[in-house]
Specification:
mainly alpha; 2 strands; 5 helices; two-stranded parallel ribbon
Length: 133
């Protein structure tokens, strides 16, 4: 019961932090079913309201690596340069936020490719790699 209470407390802390991001930290969410429309909107925002510091990284959450590549190429073509862009997938961003909020959380998510690779390897029979087939 104590573990459940701690998980509930951690979840409430995460919700509070996400609410903080939405209300104060200039977190913007744009939705569309057309990637081209989102890319054009983002390029327009970059032209009108660039970051205050040229050395600051722009944090962008994308749904896939293909979307990341498309957006990088589109921004470079439209703006002349696409630099210092930090792309995250939703799960990666969530894990980063939890690391900042919850003490003693591991550096890697249990579902990251680096961790899952070894977990899955444990299910492969060792005789599959022996020469005695």
């Amino acid at each position: 019961m104590v573990a459940l209470a701690e998980k509930s407390r951690d979840f409430i802390i995460c919700l509070a932090f996400l609410t903080f991001l939405l209300l104060i930290a200039m977190f913007y969410l744009y939705q569309s079913n057309r990637l081209e429309s989102l890319a054009a909107l983002f390029a327009g925002i970059q032209r009108v309201r660039p970051l205050e510091s040229a050395l600051a990284a722009e944090q962008i959450v994308v749904q896939s690596q293909g979307m990341r590549r498309y957006l990088s190429v589109y921004l470079a073509r439209e703006l002349g340069v696409a630099a210092n862009l930090q792309f995250s997938l939703p799960a990666g961003l969530t894990w980063q936020l939890m690391q900042k909020l919850i003490p003693d959380i591991p550096a890697l998510s249990p579902f990251s490719p680096e961790v899952m690779r070894w977990r899955l390897f444990g299910f492969v029979p060792q005789r599959a790699f022996s020469d005695d087939l």
